[in-house]
TrEMBL record:
It is found in: Endoplasmic reticulum membrane; Lipid droplet. This is Sterol-4-alpha-carboxylate 3-dehydrogenase, decarboxylating. The keyword Kinase does not apply. SUPFAM superfamilies: NAD(P)-binding Rossmann-fold domains. It holds the Pfam family 3Beta_HSD. It is a single-pass membrane protein.
């Protein structure tokens, strides 16, 4: 009779492990003595202790070898939020996540940790100290958010204590840190094109930004605390720096740290939001003829002009979460890590 090898509890897989968050997660897992199998559509680095499997997560046959003898899987792959390719989001975040769940079950994986997003409850209006019991956005602001909602539901609903398949979702917000391909590069590009002179709204709106190492810490705590008798089974958890900051103060600190001027002049929120909507519509209409990507999308304007900060109380209580790097230290380390994006570089 063939005996089934019990997966080692120190062997895990990171789907999306070549990306920004995924790679930081892989590095921390290695530090903690895990051996890691990375599954990603691209390979961006090599590290001892890591086995790479290149493929599309929508392909179960490609996924299965990466999950062999693995007890714990982190799923942090997604198309970039800046894309507006609805079919891609639906294929990867919804169909692909179904495939990931099925592959985990087939491979005998015991725990699945999903990187969701705090944005699953964001509709473009103020959220102050939002808790996990807020309803999902009824009118998600973009395809990214819409498909992250469906993805989170799928993973949490798949939690099955009887079958020994446990799931949990981490909802980070505004991840930043070294090697981030999004926040700082887009900010600097906008500044270099002379478009970061304006503050949208009165500039007092509070927002969460989360240093990447805190997000990693939250994921590992969630994974290690996940047992059939733990309160976290099938639940989502906000993970932030727990230090809400004015959106425009955060942007200014990063810009000034890199040698650019901070935005100074105010523009009314409703005016900018309406312009962003019109521009988005225009881009949609002109798509068959030409392609242009507006910098100020409705989603970015909404994020820049409203309050959106979340309570981490549930993560503190159930997971023992506490940020390990302060916002000040995180900003300093981030700025230092981008010498090539400095003014004049
Ligand atoms: N960055 C942020 O502020 C926040 C991010 N999140 C979530 O965190 C997770 C990680 O984000 P982040 O690290 O910033 O993103 P990245 O784009 O840096 O990483 C995602 C990785 O997944 C890969 N990928 C995309 N599609 C597939 C596919 N079909 N099969 C296999 N791999 C694929 C990407 O490859 P490629 O680059 O080639 O597409 C990339 O390597 C995502 O789930 C995101 O939704 C949540 C909240 C905030
Ligand atoms: C042009 C400026 C008004 C803004 C430049 C910075 C923005 C690129 C970023 C500020 C907040 C960020 C953010 C995300 C992406 C990058 C920003 C818009 C997410 C949408 C990434 C994916 C998520 O799950 C939620 C994030 C919220 C904050």
């Amino acid at each position: 009779m063939a005996t089934r090898v019990r997966p080692s509890s120190k062997r895990c897989a990171v789907i999306g492990g070549s990306g920004f968050l995924g790679r930081h997660l892989v590095e921390k897992l290695l530090d903690r003595g895990y051996s890691v199998s990375v599954f990603d559509i691209r390979q961006s680095y090599e590290l001892p202790g890591v086995t790479f499997h290149q493929g599309d997560l929508c392909d179960k046959q490609a996924l299965l070898p990466a999950l062999k003898d693995v007890s714990l899987v982190f799923h942090c792959a997604s198309p970039a939020p800046a894309s507006d390719d609805r079919r891609l989001f639906e294929r990867v975040n919804i169909q692909g996540t179904r495939t990931v769940i099925q592959a985990c079950v087939d491979a005998g994986v015991q725990k699945l940790v999903l990187t969701s997003s705090a944005s699953v409850v964001f509709e473009g209006t103020d959220i102050k100290n939002g808790k996990e019991d807020l309803p999902y956005a009824k009118k998600p602001i973009d395809y990214y958010t819409q498909t992250k909602i469906e993805q989170e539901k799928l993973v949490l609903e798949a939690c099955d204590k009887e079958k020994g398949f446990l799931t949990v979702a981490i909802r980070p917000h505004g991840i930043f840190g070294p090697r981030d391909p999004q926040l700082v590069p887009i900010l600097v590009d906008t500044a270099r094109r002379g478009k970061m002179k304006f503050i949208i709204g009165d500039g007092t709106n509070l927002v969460d930004f989360t240093f990447v190492e805190n997000v990693v810490h939250g994921h590992i705590l969630a994974a290690e605390r996940l047992r059939s008798d733990s309160p976290s089974c099938g639940k989502p958890y906000h993970i932030t720096n727990d230090e809400p900051i004015r959106f425009w103060d955060f942007m200014s600190e990063v810009l000034v740290g890199l040698g650019y001027a901070a935005p100074r002049y105010h523009l009314p929120y409703t005016l900018v939001y309406t312009l962003a909507l019109l521009l988005w519509l225009l881009a949609l209409i002109l798509r068959p003829l030409m392609s242009f990507k507006p910098t100020f999308t409705p989603m970015r304007v909404a994020l820049a002009g409203t309050h959106h900060y979340y309570s981490c109380d549930r993560a503190k209580q159930d997971l023992g979460y506490k940020p390990v790097v302060s916002l000040k230290e995180g900003i300093a380390r981030t700025v230092q890590s981008y010498p090539h994006l400095k003014q004049g570089a």
